[in-house]
Each structure stands twice: as structure tokens, then as C-alpha cells.
Amino acid sequence: MATLGYQTAGDLGALLLPLYVRGDAVAQTIQKKPMLKWWEEHKETFSGGLNFEISDNVQGAFMSDTQTLTGYSNDDQLSFGQAMNTIRTAFYGKEHNWGLTISWTELKQAGITIDNKQAIRNHSEQDLYVLTKLYKNRMSDFIESYSRLKARLFFLDGSQDPKAMPGFKSIITDTPTTGTTGGISRSANPWWQHRANLALATSPNDQTLCRFFQTELRMLKLFEGEPNVAFCGNDFLNALEAEIRAKGTYTMEGFTSKGKNDFGQADISLKGLGTFTWEPMLDQLGEGKRCYILDSRRINVRPMQDEDDKTLTPTRPYNYLMFFHNITWTGTMTTTQLNCHGVYSLA
Which residues neighbour 67 within 8 Å (Cβ) at sequence distance 6 or greater? Predict the structure, then answer.
């Protein structure tokens, strides 16, 4: 570290913070967060603007809903209509901050002394080693905690904080026929509703879940939907695995093989959809019986350009013997179609 020329604790923190944020720490941390990773892979930036508004044209009604294709002859009077059926959504970005402080007292307790110019006194290899170790320990905690809170933020409906972004559950709700999404009434516009079934039965003998999702997938694709991911809780996956296991065999030779009998199962997938992925956060939030199926083309996290996990290292205030580091994130979550997504739960 000595060859890098970073002599102050603040400078070293400014160096390490972007490395931790821009590396694999957010996507792959202590506990896997597949839904957060999926959001990050499909995010689309926006340029900002008044109230951080993001608006898209959507359409569910057509002229054919109210007019017919009529025949005519000779001088019959012809009828005409207007194709004015587009509606604009309105989603609004929110600003978020995650901050870390390290005090001079902590540095002194680690054997590091800072002078009045904030330079490390007796700039030695040992000083830099201890300082780097201290910062790495704090950064690991700081980034893992940020990753966990960000994953929850993207999932929750925003009711936990009026200044926070309404996340995924504000769009894929338990009541698709009521309320609004993006300022558009779901009850007044049946086409602006996602799919939902929160009382699914399961039967290993009858393959109830397997049969349900084969049919449900066709409904999710009815209006040109292309659902491509399913996030599930542990209880849901257990029920699905039990149905598949009930009709399967362990090996080509049954239980007579002289070798090993592997009772494991491969990942569960559905042709035309993909893999049913375990999302541990669902269990942590008491939703282990749930499954969410999504179309990545029609629902996205939308960070503001140049404000996505932005790292800041503000100058130390004169009246605090502290070093400060921030990560800020500005954005929201939007959708342009709802009938290609679904929420499901075991009864």
C-alpha cells in the first residue's frame, strides 16, 4: 500500500470504497441475493428531471372494443372512430443514503496517529498495514449491510419509509384488482392487473402445483408476455420438489444399483419459463410459501444516470474528528405491463 501514495486515512477510505462497491460485493456477498442480482442485471438508467419522474405510454384498450367492422354498399354512410387509447404511467424516483464513519479515536486504538494535516505520523509499512486492515474490516460490514438493505428496499412496498422508493411489492401486490400502479387504476383497467393466486393446493399424488403452473404459464404469455424468472421461498420449493419426487425414480436401476443411490434433485425448471430460484429473503420476511414470476422486459429498477451506487468521501468537518463515507442511490422501480407477472402462494 505504501507505493500508492495514499497518506491519510480519509484518502485510503476514498480508495477502498469504490473498489468494494464496484466489485462483486453487492452482487455476491455473504448470503446470496438472487433477486437483487437479477434487478442489477436488468436495470435501466434515466436522466433525471422534475420530481425524478419516469413516464411511459401503455395501452390496453383498442378501437375494436367499442366499434365493429361493418359492411357497406353504394352510398351508405360510413362510421369513423378515434384511436386515442394510450395512458401514461408516472413513477417517481427517491434519494437514498448509506453512511459510514470512522473516528480518530478508533484509529488511535489501532495504533495509528493522525497529525493536524490528517497525514499518518511516522508513515511506515506497519501503519499502512494496520490502517488498511481496519478499513477493509469496516468496508466489508458496510457493503454487506448496504447490500442487505438495498435488497429489502427493492422488495418492500415503500410503506416503511415515506421518503423511500416503493419497491417490487408496490407493483406486484396481493390485490391486483384494487389500487393503482404508476398512477393508473387497476380496477378501472382490467388489462392493468397482474396475475395472483394466494391459495394454491399441493398434492404429490395429483401433481397439483405442476399442472397449475403449466396452465398458468400460458395465461402469463397470453398478451405477448415473456416471463423468464421465478423467485420462490423455501416452503414453496419444498412442495414443488415433493410433487416431482413422488412421480420420479432415483436411478436408472432403482434401489438395486451396487453404486451410490443419489437422492438429490436438479434445479426445478419449467419449459418456456426457466428455473424456480430460491430467494432466502422471502423466508426472512415470512413469505416462504410464495413464488413470484416476472418478465424482465416489463419491470425494471431505474436508477438515475450517474447516481447509481455513487460513492462520496466528504471532507471532515472542522468540529468532528471523524472520517465520513457515503453511498447514495437515486431511482425507482417501474413497469410497462402487468399481466405478464404473477404472485402465488401455498394455501
Answer: 79, 81
pLDDT tens digits, one per residue of 73-100 = 999 998 888 888 899 999 999 999 999 8
Contacts of 314 (CB under 8 A, 6+ apart): 324, 326
Angle subtended at Cα 196 by Cα 195 and Cα 202, rounded to the nearest 5 degrees: 125
Helices in 207-305 by DSSP H: which ranges? 208-220, 234-246, 280-284
Contacts of 243 (CB under 8 A, 6+ apart): 202, 203, 204, 207, 208, 209, 210
Question: For the chain, which residues make up each domain, given as ranges?
Answer: 6-57+88-346
- Backbone dihedral region for residue 195 (phi beyond 0: left; psi -120 to 50: alpha; all else: beta): beta
Amino acid code (one letter) for 327:
I
The second-level CATH assignment, the architecture, of 6-57+88-346 is: Alpha-Beta Complex (3.90)
Give 29's pLDDT tier (boundaries 50, 70, 90): very low
The predicted structure's pLDDT at residue 25: 43
Q: What percent of the chain has pLDDT over 90?
A: 59
Contact predicate 93/52, CB 8 Å: yes
* Phi, psi at 158, each rounded to 5°: 95, -10
User: Has residue 24 got a pLDDT over 50?
Assistant: no
The amino acid occupying position 165 is M
Q: Which of 250, 263, 244, 264 is CA-nearest to residue 203?
A: 244
Report residue 193 as a C-alpha cell. 392487473
SS3 33: coil
* Grid coordinates given for 322: 471523524
Lowest mean pLDDT among 79-83, 117-121, 228-232: 117-121
Determine the Cα–Cα distance for residues 65 and 319; give it in Å rounded to an integer. Answer: 68
Q: What is the pLDDT of residue 4?
A: 36
CB 195 within 8 A of CB 219: yes
Q: What is the pLDDT of residue 235?
A: 97
Q: How far from 102 is each of 21, 99, 245, 321, CA to CA, in Å?
A: 18, 10, 53, 9
Quote the mean pLDDT of the chain: 86
